[in-house]
Amino acid sequence: MGTSHYVDLFLVRHCITDWNKEKRYLGHTDRGVLISELTQLNKLQKELMEISFDQVFTSDLRRCRETLAYMNIPSQHSVDTRLREINFGDWEGKTYNELKDDRTYQDWLNNWEEHSIPNGESADTFKARIDSFIQDLLHQSIQSIQNGKETFLIMTHGGVIRYLVSSFVSSTDFWDLSVPHGHGIHLTLVRQKGEWVCNSLSVVPFQEKEK
């Protein structure tokens, strides 16, 4: 039997920004993180510092780059625009209460894949760029994988994590998953019969059970 190829993906959501705190839609608008909130990353940082990452990837937007800089992970990192959040177009900076009476907004909430954001990004465009990133990453892993396994950290946004998890975990819908800022999801993928499938999912940092 051939060697199984495994990939560990640590999908981490950036630290919180002012617009996040105010529950404003934040896509391509380039807001920095709230410096006062960075210490909330300390538990996650401690866990990730114990992992040897083959490579680290981050969205080019400030909130991801600033979060990654604070984490100070000792691994080579690459900036990739494909890891950006969806572009919310006319809805950037607006809240649910400001949009709730807009029929176009309600249609999008009911079916985000069929209804586009005004002057924003369609679901097809959003998914295509993330698919492009992950396909390139997994293809390169097949070529370079050592000892049957590689481990990657991906610093990105809530919508990107939702989509990636729903892509690999068939029982999870896009809206099922909610990842707090400064937290993430650990997926283990295994290559079986030419396809990558998820055989493990957990949250990071590790959630201790209450006594």
From TrEMBL:
Active site (record annotation): 14, 85
User: GO biological process: any one?
Assistant: negative regulation of glycolytic process
Kindly state one GO CC term assigned in the UniProt record.
Answer: cytosol
UniProt entry tagged with the keyword Oxidoreductase: no
Keywords in alphabetical order: Hydrolase
Task: Give the InterPro entries listed for this entry.
Answer: His_Pase_superF_clade-1, His_PPase_superfam, Phosphoglycerate_Mutase
Name of the protein in question: Alpha-ribazole phosphatase
